[in-house]
């Protein structure tokens, strides 16, 4: 949007541009006020998500071990200065694995949400805008897919496509597609009726331009919220798959795999399963709280109100 | 002004929306939203359409703009029947016919800033290519609708209702239209803003030689802006007359009832005025009564009204009425 | 209304049809040859070929599909390759296990979720609402198996008041059934309660801010009537949708819960059949699951009509 | 004693004697007298691929869990791992005539009342030859069996097979021919009829199995009313159930839970099987010129780089056994010459450099996707990384695992070798070139000399000679050619509640239980 | 005049939002006599609805809060009772009825008209269900709904807008409210239906001696029906008086501007209208002077910098304006 300001600048003077900038700043402030206006939980969650992202990005800097590095002689030890959270059954540093697990979980969550978003939004837009038999067919197919629980769908697909990160993310992504399609479809159906779409048609705008210039941008808030929530759900499904032994293969430090593996030691060394479980829980919860906040902050209905 | 050639002639326009039912979406009846409407609009003139909610005002406008494909009838624009032109042929005329919407909020994309809304409308023309030209045109448009250029960087939700409606007008003007259908453009606005916009419409018409079809349900507003007024009831034109004649010479009982129902701010007259309060409500256009659509609420209704639809006949002085009891209104 | 119901039923039939194609596709796209798997790696090529013919695997895909559907329609689901049992018998054993855990979970979760949602909507912004919101958020963020593991850890291992795992059918010993079902039902119900409560809260807030509630207030109606008779009833439609959607969650979660609590239900057989490439079982399992969800959604659709006169009375 | 045997065969099984090797920490007071009645609650989980087919009865001739209570084998292992007669009175090999002659024990009846006759035994053996699992390996030389009289069965061989008695211990379950004739194989699946002490009453896959006692068991009166086996998806839970008293006996394959149970103070009889259960083995893809593993030096380097002691300590919590070959030192086939490349990084690096891989290389590790295996693979990969070898981890699904046993694309397969059969039968079915199914059959580069040696050993006329030759084979396989490397070897542990007495539960061999004398009190 | 039924003194209602405090109603005072029709007019967003909701204490809270003032109804200060109090609930519906703008959404869509009507009747009168139903039927007949018995069993969506508004009126009628507050009761309706509804309301006022508060921005409507008018601008009352004075001799520039903006049915329509330029101020940040000053055509330098003007009496009688200037009724006010 900044380009726009620069491009059109000559029809406005410097002062107006400054004003516009100020207004946008206000908008951003408003956005954050709403985002955080939901109490301490929202703030903590936002900070947590940020921390998780930072940890995921900078994990090699946070620890001197690699997630695969073993010290067999030092297996299943409790917390110590060398190993902040202790070691697992192969003497790998638990803290390191959890840190790398953040990278792994977030990337699988993001990757699969991207898949779901791309496929789902494309289908939803097409079905909603063109409607008719095509739209109906797409929606019925989505109904069909929705009647199979995502975990089971992912399970079946994982058996076919194997457990590489790429295929797992695609599989989880596919199982999230109907959610996107349904919401986007509904949105497009209602947006399509708005007068500004009619107006765009009246000034001679083509179908695709309308689709991408008017309908898609107006779906953005929903998409962003769904995406944020989707990341959490994807991570949850991934961990479920891992728990069933079908997801990502060990020794990848996925939190789900770590819980699955650590569960064997729940009586003797509970920390092995508890820590990744707690992290998983925190990440999913904070993602969903942030998603909620985003929903409110991006809701045009709430603009100016509240 | 009567000497000008007609820019638009609507002849026997019909728009039936099918109502579907059941599993196979069988059409079981039609909403006769517009049923055999004819009128003509001269260049530079404003033709007003009034009527109660659901009487087909918007539908008429949308048929003229080819948003709906009319079921039947001719729409002759500039001497050419555009009602049955294929979409590709109609493209040439597309931008000459514009619409201004009732709801100034819904008609603006909330994610587009003012300048991008205008830019989109300007660029579509393919007449303006360089950035400079576009900007020049944009400035022109903004000043035409009396908007300050500051506004260019704002978003619709940062504008007031009046400003939004002006922006809508500017967008329509960007297409260099000949005919603008204004669909209740002031109904959602406050009186003071409404007056501003009405003035704007009038000024633009003078400056640019525009032709309007002005749809409204407020007789006072329509009378103020339109040269000729068509009164619609249940999908049909019941009376067409010059606006100057409206108050004194209207002959259709429905028009009279409408006039009397409009409260005015003329205190002393208002206190004295006898009102015709119509009984009942507008019937649904799905099963319109046979004969004259107005007969169930008309106090002059006779047997013929109940069976045969009266024709819209010229009663002189460009005054067309569709009533068997043309103008016996004593009271 | 009847046209509406018939339409919903037709849509459901289409959905089931689509799912049956999907389930059938599982067999087609999964790697490995079912006949070979059935006979083992040492069987001769001729034997495998004979079995392929017996299992119709040599026919064109469409014929295979039709034969399969015909079989399923007759109640003949085929035979499990691994368990060497007729699948209908296996399913008759297993589906009730999943249902006897899932249905109570749903029936506990739905009212509880609604109550929690209503309370937090009514007490919006108050500490009680904040506590409930926090709890629902946390319960939604906990993977089902994680809840299971934690609750086992707390109630069975530490406190020793509930059994670790296991399942007894209610017809066999109802007391034992209840005793053993507490934890799995709790684990299944928890995310549902949270989901339903959240939805209820949102919709109640929407509903409470509607004009007709203001009218009801302006008419001096008692708060209880406003909340339950007017606001909740209006909020009910999206809530019912969510409850309908929870059926998927229950079944999906049953995979995990059954593993944690060692219940040999539908979820277990699906997981193990996928692991052992017992595709015919997987096909039937997926089909049954989607039949259940479709059936529930059909009920939900009909409930819409019952609750909302606009659907019931409209001619469409 | 069975006369005329060139080989020592024990005439009768004595469960008591097999307890000698058992490590018994708590035993029932001698004063208690056995009482009849009661049910033994057994719990367990299946984690190995064979187990998947093991509990879920697949076919009468396959290894079936029910078999261990309901079915019996003609012979079985003694506590030292040598075959002894069980349903037989005697068995006599004759290298010259290419026959093994067996005498069937008298008075044995199946649970359906039909008698175990020579004819039935011969039918079983022939049926196994046709349909049995692993028949192509074990019964490759077996031609047919014929009943010469009501007690005698003569088995004919195409070439001499000294290990036939070992094979008989493994998988040939004896089923009732009468039942088979009535219901076919499927009928036997639904309703197995064997000679064992218990009869299957009902079984729910994935849940449990109930067995009633066989009232006319041939070894004597069965004391228990029956056994009830509960299947636990999670072994941990099985162990907890044992502690909580929900079950009275359990067997464990997972060392983490063994560890926790061994440390438990509650009174359980904790028994280690006399025979080792599994050998975790690295198998090298050695027949592919492009694969670094085809280089002997590389194989040896890898072998030197593995710290087997550390693996035993960590992966088995010390309950495993460090060994260099597919048997343990108390086995008669154990060759002390095999050193199995003791852990030495320097040697490993040197060998690698000699082979031209100074900077190491990258390879693949294939293994079955279960926790114990993936832990092992991860540990091995980490050790290999110390000499510069990057090992890519490739877990294999249980369902497709059999497709990999014969040959894997490249690199190393980590395989679990069942050890009850003893080393010799493994060598005999693995390191020959013309088998139709078996470990590494498309992956091992077996030199002709080794192939010849194995064949010679297999057809040795006397068992002493066979022992000598198989020790040579072991040296060739593990030391000279380094085709495989044994990582560690495990025994299984069983846990029985103190309320259960005289239960011979998994004392000799993984999952073998002579429960007919057991009683609950 | 007569007895003061309702007297609002210095009422202040503020919305506390992220964008700041919105003083939607900022110290307004007015009263309603028995049997009187009082109108509240003003542009959109000037606080008309909020002021009436405040009287009923139904302002959405949060964010809204009544921060000051008194609402005396039949000698009782309602603010003292509290919004949730039993007294207040007894008053709502029974003694003060309220009719809202949107007849489409003002009734519960999933309950029949009859059951809603009967519920309110039973709430305020000790009658059985059956009796309540009968009373319902009678009141529906009283608001001229044909086939009342059938209509009782209908759902709101089966009725037209005018019909729904009649039902809203029927509810207040059934409970015999002494005061009816109508918030733009006819804005969403067609002109002919508007006339019907207004006739109906006026008939009730006449027959039952009910008082009526009409909130609207339709100046024609108040001209015809109201006894007294209060003109609101940006949360304040800028002019008040009897209808004749306000309509024929408006003294506040805002009222004058409003009246001039209305297109007249009879005037020569070749002339342009005389609108008030500009738009109402943002209630979140009001200037520290006369709020109307930026739009005021008469605005003088003298008005600048002065605090918001207090209401003052002009022309004797009950005519009050909040303006520093004295603008005669012939100065720019054309009718
Ligand atoms: N797309 C459509 N499908 C079916 N019926 C329609 C459609 N559009 C309009 N109608 C019906 O046609 C009739 C006329 O509608 P139209 O919108 O033209 O009325 P209007 O005079 O503009 O009313 P208003 O004053 O409420 O805008 C109405 O009864 C309406 O329900
Ligand atoms: N729930 C709310 N939250 C925040 N601000 C509100 C709320 N309700 C009303 N307001 C503000 O109070 C001011 C007065 O609103 P009110 O509804 O009383 O206007 P009105 O005069 O009735 O207008 P209209 O003619 O449009 O009905 C408005 O500026 C509005 O922004
Ligand atoms: Mg319209
Ligand atoms: Mg209002």
UniProtKB/TrEMBL annotation, chain A:
TM helices/strands, residue ranges: 30-63, 114-139, 151-177, 223-244, 265-290
Protein topology in the membrane: Multi-pass membrane protein
Entry keyword set: Cell membrane, Membrane, Transmembrane, Transmembrane helix, Transport
Location of the ABC transmembrane type-1 domain: 102-291
Biological process, per Gene Ontology: transmembrane transport
A GO CC term attached to the entry: plasma membrane
Subcellular location, record wording: Cell membrane
The family this protein is said to belong to: Belongs to the binding-protein-dependent transport system permease family.
Identification of the protein by name: Peptide/nickel transport system permease protein
Species assigned in the record: Sporobacter termitidis DSM 10068
UniProtKB/TrEMBL annotation, chain B:
InterPro entries: AAA+_ATPase, ABC_transp_ATP-bind, ABC_transporter-like_ATP-bd, ABC_transporter-like_CS, Oligopep_ABC_C, P-loop_NTPase
GO molecular function annotation: ATP binding; ATP hydrolysis activity
Keyword terms: ATP-binding, Nucleotide-binding, Transport
SUPFAM superfamilies: P-loop containing nucleoside triphosphate hydrolases
Keyword Nucleotide-binding among record annotations: yes
Residues of the ABC transporter domain: 19-259
Keyword ATP-binding: yes
Transmembrane segments: none
GO biological process, one term: peptide transport
NCBIfam families per UniProt: oligo_HPY
Family recorded in the similarity comment: Belongs to the ABC transporter superfamily.
Protein name: Peptide/nickel transport system ATP-binding protein
From TrEMBL, chain C:
Keywords in alphabetical order: Cell membrane, Membrane, Transmembrane, Transmembrane helix, Transport
Any GO molecular function: dipeptide transmembrane transporter activity
PROSITE patterns: ABC_TM1
Membrane disposition: Multi-pass membrane protein
Pfam families referenced in this protein's UniProt entry, alphabetically: BPD_transp_1, BPD_transp_1_N
CDD domains, per database record: TM_PBP2 (cd06261)
Entry's transmembrane regions: 9-30, 99-119, 131-157, 177-197, 235-257, 279-307
Subcellular location(s) of the protein: Cell membrane
A single GO cellular-component term on record: plasma membrane
Residue ranges of domain ABC transmembrane type-1 in the record: 95-300
Family membership: Belongs to the binding-protein-dependent transport system permease family.
Official protein name in the record: Peptide/nickel transport system permease protein
UniProt organism field: Sporobacter termitidis DSM 10068
Automatic annotation (TrEMBL), chain E:
PROSITE patterns: ABC_TRANSPORTER_1, ABC_TRANSPORTER_2
Keyword Transcription carried by entry: no
GO-annotated molecular function: ATP binding; ATP hydrolysis activity
Entry keyword annotation includes Cell membrane: yes
Family annotation (InterPro entries): AAA+_ATPase (IPR003593), ABC_Ni/Peptide_Import (IPR050388), ABC_transporter-like_ATP-bd (IPR003439), ABC_transporter-like_CS (IPR017871), Oligopep_ABC_C (IPR013563), P-loop_NTPase (IPR027417)
Cellular localisation: Cell membrane
CDD domains: ABC_NikE_OppD_transporters (cd03257)
Domain ABC transporter residues, every copy: 6-259
Key words, A-Z: ATP-binding, Cell membrane, Membrane, Nucleotide-binding, Transport
Coiled coil: none
GO BP annotations listed: peptide transport
GO cellular component, one term: plasma membrane
SUPFAM superfamilies named among the record's database cross-references: P-loop containing nucleoside triphosphate hydrolases
Membrane topology (UniProt): Peripheral membrane protein
Main location: membrane
Family: Belongs to the ABC transporter superfamily.
Protein name: Oligopeptide transport system ATP-binding protein
Source lineage: Bacteria, Bacillati, Bacillota, Clostridia, Eubacteriales
């Amino acid at each position: 949007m900044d380009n726009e300001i620069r491009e059109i600048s000559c029809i406005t003077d410097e002062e107006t541009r400054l004003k516009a900038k100020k207004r946008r700043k206000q908008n951003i402030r408003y956005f954050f006020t709403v985002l955080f206006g939901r109490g301490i939980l929202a703030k903590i969650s936002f900070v947590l998500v940020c921390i998780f992202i930072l940890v995921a990005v900078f994990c090699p800097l946070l620890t001197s071990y690699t997630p695969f590095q073993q010290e067999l002689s030092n297996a299943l030890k409790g917390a110590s200065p060398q190993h902040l959270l202790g070691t697992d059954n192969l003497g790998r540093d638990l803290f390191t694995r959890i840190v790398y697990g953040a990278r792994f979980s977030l990337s699988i969550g993001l990757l699969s949400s991207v898949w779901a978003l791309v496929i789902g939004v494309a289908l939803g837009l097409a079905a909603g805008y063109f409607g008719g038999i095509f739209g109906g067919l797409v929606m019925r197919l989505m109904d069909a897919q929705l009647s199979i629980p995502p975990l089971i769908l992912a399970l079946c697909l994982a058996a076919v496509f194997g457990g590489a990160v790429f295929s797992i993310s695609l599989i989880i992504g596919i199982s999230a597609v109907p959610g996107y399609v349904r919401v986007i479809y509904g949105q497009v159906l209602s947006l399509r009726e708005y007068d500004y779409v009619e107006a765009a048609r009246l000034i001679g705008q083509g179908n695709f331009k309308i689709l991408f210039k008017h309908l898609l941008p107006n779906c953005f808030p929903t998409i962003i919220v769904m995406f944020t929530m989707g990341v959490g759900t994807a991570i949850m499904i991934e961990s479920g798959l891992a728990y069933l032994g079908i997801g990502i293969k060990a020794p990848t430090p996925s939190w789900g795999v770590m819980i699955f593996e650590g569960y064997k030691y729940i009586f003797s060394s509970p920390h092995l399963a508890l820590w990744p479980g707690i992290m998983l829980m925190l990440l999913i919860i904070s993602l969903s709280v942030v998603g909620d906040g985003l929903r409110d902050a991006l809701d045009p209905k709430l603009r100016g109100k509240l | 002004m009567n000497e000008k050639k007609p820019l638009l002639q609507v002849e026997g326009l019909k728009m039936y929306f099918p109502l579907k039912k059941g599993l196979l979406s069988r059409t079981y009846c039609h909403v006769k939203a517009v049923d055999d409407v004819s009128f003509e609009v001269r260049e530079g003139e404003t033709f007003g359409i009034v009527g109660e909610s659901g009487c087909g005002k918007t539908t008429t406008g949308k048929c003229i703009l080819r948003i709906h494909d009319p079921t039947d009838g001719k729409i002759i624009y500039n001497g050419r029947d555009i009602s049955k032109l294929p979409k590709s042929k109609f493209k040439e005329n597309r931008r000459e016919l514009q619409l201004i919407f009732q709801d100034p909020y819904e008609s603006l994309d909330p994610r587009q800033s003012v300048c991008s809304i205008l830019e989109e409308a300007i660029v579509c023309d393919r007449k303006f290519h360089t950035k400079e030209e576009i900007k020049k045109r944009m400035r022109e448009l903004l000043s035409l609708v009396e908007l300050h250029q500051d506004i260019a960087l704002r978003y619709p939700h940062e504008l007031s209702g009046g400003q939004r409606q002006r922006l809508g007008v500017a967008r329509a003007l960007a297409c260099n239209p000949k005919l603008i259908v204004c669909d209740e453009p002031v109904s959602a606005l406050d009186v003071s803003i409404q007056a501003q916009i009405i003035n704007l419409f009038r000024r633009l018409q003078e400056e640019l030689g525009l032709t309007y079809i002005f749809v409204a349900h407020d007789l006072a507003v329509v009378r103020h802006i339109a040269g000729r007024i068509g009164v619609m009831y249940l999908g049909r034109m019941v009376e067409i007359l010059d606006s100057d004649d409206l108050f004194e010479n209207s002959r259709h009982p429905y028009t009279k009832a409408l006039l009397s129902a409009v409260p005015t701010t003329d205190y002393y007259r208002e206190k004295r005025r006898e009102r015709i309060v119509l009984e009942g409500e507008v019937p649904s256009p799905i099963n319109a009564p046979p004969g004259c659509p107005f007969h169930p609420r008309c106090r002059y209704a006779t047997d013929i009204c109940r069976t045969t639809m009266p024709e819209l006949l010229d009663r002189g002085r460009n005054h067309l009425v569709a009533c068997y009891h043309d103008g016996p209104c004593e009271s | 209304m009847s046209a509406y119901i018939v339409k919903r039923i037709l849509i459901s039939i289409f959905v089931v049809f689509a799912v049956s194609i999907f389930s059938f596709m599982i067999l087609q796209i999964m790697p490995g040859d079912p006949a070979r798997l059935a006979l083992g790696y040492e069987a001769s090529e001729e034997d495998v070929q004979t079995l392929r013919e017996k299992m119709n695997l040599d026919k064109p895909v469409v014929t295979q599909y039709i034969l399969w559907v015909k079989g399923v329609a007759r109640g003949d689901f085929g035979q499990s390759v691994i368990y060497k049992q007729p699948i209908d018998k296996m399913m008759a054993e297993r589906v009730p296990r999943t249902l006897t855990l899932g249905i109570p979970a749903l029936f506990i979760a739905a009212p509880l979720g609604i109550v929690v949602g209503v309370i937090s909507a009514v007490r919006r912004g108050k500490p009680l609402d904040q506590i409930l919101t926090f709890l629902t958020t946390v319960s939604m963020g906990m993977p089902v198996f994680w809840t299971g593991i934690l609750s086992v850890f707390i109630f069975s291992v530490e406190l020793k008041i509930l059994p670790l795992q296991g399942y007894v059918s209610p017809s066999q010993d109802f007391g034992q059934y209840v005793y053993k079902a507490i934890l799995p039902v709790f684990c299944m119900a928890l995310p549902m309660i949270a989901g339903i409560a959240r939805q209820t809260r949102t919709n109640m807030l929407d509903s409470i801010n509607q004009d007709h509630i203001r009218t009801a207030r302006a008419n001096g109606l008692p708060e209880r009537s406003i909340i339950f008779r007017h606001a909740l009833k209006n909020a009910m439609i999206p809530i019912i949708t969510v409850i309908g959607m929870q059926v998927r969650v229950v079944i999906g979660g049953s995979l995990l819960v059954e593993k944690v609590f060692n219940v040999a239900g539908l979820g277990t057989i699906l997981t193990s059949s996928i692991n052992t490439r017992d595709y015919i079982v997987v096909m039937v399992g997926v089909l049954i699951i989607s039949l259940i969800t479709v059936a529930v959604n059909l009920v939900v659709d009909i409930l819409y009509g019952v609750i909302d006169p606009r659907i019931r009375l409209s001619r469409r | 004693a069975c006369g005329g045997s060139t080989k020592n065969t024990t005439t009768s099984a004595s469960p008591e004697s097999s307890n000698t090797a058992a490590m018994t920490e708590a035993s029932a007071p001698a004063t208690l007298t056995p009482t009849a009645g009661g049910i033994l609650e057994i719990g367990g989980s299946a984690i190995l691929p064979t187990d998947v087919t093991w509990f879920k009865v697949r076919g009468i001739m396959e290894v079936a869990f029910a078999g261990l209570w309901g079915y019996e084998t003609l012979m079985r292992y003694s506590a030292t791992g040598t075959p002894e007669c069980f349903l037989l009175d005697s068995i006599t090999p004759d290298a010259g005539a290419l026959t093994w002659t067996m005498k069937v024990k008298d008075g044995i009846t199946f649970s359906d009342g039909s008698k175990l006759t020579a004819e039935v035994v011969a039918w079983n053996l022939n049926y196994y030859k046709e349909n049995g699992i692993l028949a192509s390996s074990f019964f490759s030389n077996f031609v047919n069996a014929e009943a010469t009289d009501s007690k005698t069965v003569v088995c004919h061989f195409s070439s001499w097979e000294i290990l036939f008695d070992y094979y008989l211990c493994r998988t040939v379950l004896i089923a009732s021919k009468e039942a088979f004739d009535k219901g076919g194989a499927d009928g036997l699946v639904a309703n197995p009829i064997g000679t064992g002490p218990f009869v299957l009453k009902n079984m729910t896959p994935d849940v449990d199995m109930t067995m009633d006692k066989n009232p006319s068991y041939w070894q004597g009166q069965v004391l228990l009313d029956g056994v009830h086996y509960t299947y636990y998806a999670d072994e941990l839970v099985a162990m907890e159930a044992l502690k909580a008293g929900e079950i009275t006996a359990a067997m464990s394959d997972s060392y983490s839970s063994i560890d926790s149970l061994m440390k438990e103070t509650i009174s359980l009889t904790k028994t280690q099987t006399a025979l080792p259960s599994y050998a975790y083995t690295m198998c090298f893809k050695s027949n592919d010129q492009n694969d670094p593993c085809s280089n002997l030096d590389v194989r040896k380097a890898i072998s030197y780089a593995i710290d087997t002691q550390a693996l035993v300590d960590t992966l088995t919590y010390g309950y495993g056994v460090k060994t260099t070959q597919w048997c343990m030192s108390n086995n008669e086939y154990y060759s002390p010459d095999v050193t199995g490349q003791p852990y030495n990084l320097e040697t490993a690096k040197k060998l690698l450099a000699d082979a031209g891989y100074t900077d190491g290389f990258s390879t693949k590790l294939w293994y079955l996707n279960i926790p114990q295996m993936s832990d092992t693979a991860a540990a091995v990969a980490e050790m290999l990384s110390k000499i510069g070898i990057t090992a890519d981890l490739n877990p294999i699904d249980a369902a497709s695992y059999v497709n990999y046993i014969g040959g894997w694309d490249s690199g190393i397969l980590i395989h679990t070798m069942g050890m009850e059969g003893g080393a010799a039968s493994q060598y005999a079915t693995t390191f020959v070139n013309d088998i139709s199914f078996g470990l590494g059959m498309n992956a091992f580069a077996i030199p002709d000399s080794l192939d010849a040696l194995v064949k010679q050993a297999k057809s040795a006329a006397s068992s002493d000679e066979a022992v000598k030759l198989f020790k040579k084979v072991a040296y060739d396989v593990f030391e000279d050619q380094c085709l495989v490397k044994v990582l560690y070897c495990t025994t299984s542990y069983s846990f029985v509640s103190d309320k259960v007495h005289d239960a011979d539960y998994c004392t000799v061999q993984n999952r073998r239980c002579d429960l007919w004398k057991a009683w609950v009190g | 005049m007569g007895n003061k039924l309702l007297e609002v003194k210095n009422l202040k209602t503020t919305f506390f939002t992220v964008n700041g405090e919105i003083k939607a109603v900022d110290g307004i005072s007015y009263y309603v006599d028995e049997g009187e029709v009082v109108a509240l007019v003003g542009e959109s967003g000037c606080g008309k609805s909020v002021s009436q909701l405040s009287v009923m204490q139904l302002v959405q809270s949060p964010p809204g809060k009544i921060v000051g003032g008194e609402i005396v109804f039949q000698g009782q200060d309602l603010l003292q009772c509290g919004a949730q109090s039993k007294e207040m609930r007894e008053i709502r519906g029974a003694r003060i009825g309220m009719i809202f703008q949107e007849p489409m959404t003002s009734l519960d869509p999933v309950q029949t008209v009859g059951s809603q009507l009967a519920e309110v009747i039973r709430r305020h009168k000790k009658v059985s269900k059956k009796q309540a139903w009968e009373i319902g039927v009678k009141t529906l007949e009283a608001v001229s709904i044909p086939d009342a018995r059938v209509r009782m069993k209908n759902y709101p969506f089966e009725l037209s807008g005018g019909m729904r508004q009649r039902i809203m009126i029927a509810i207040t009628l059934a409970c015999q409210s002494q005061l009816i507050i109508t918030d733009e009761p006819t804005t969403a309706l067609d002109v002919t239906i508007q006339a019907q509804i207004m006739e109906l309301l006026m008939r009730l006022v006449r027959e039952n001696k009910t008082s009526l508060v009409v909130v609207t921005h339709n100046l024609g409507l108040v001209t015809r029906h109201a006894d007294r008018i209060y003109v609101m601008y940006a949360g304040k009352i800028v002019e008040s008086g009897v209808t004749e004075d306000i309509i024929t001799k408006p003294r506040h520039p805002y009222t004058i501007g409003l009246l001039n903006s209305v297109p007249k049915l009879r005037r020569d329509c070749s002339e342009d209208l005389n609108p008030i330029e500009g738009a109402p101020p943002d209630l979140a940040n009001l200037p520290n002077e006369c709020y109307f000053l930026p739009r005021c055509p008469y605005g003088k330098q003298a008005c600048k910098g002065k605090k918001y003007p207090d209401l003052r009496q002009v022309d004797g009688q009950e005519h009050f304006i909040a303006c520093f200037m004295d603008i005669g009724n012939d100065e720019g006010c054309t009718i």
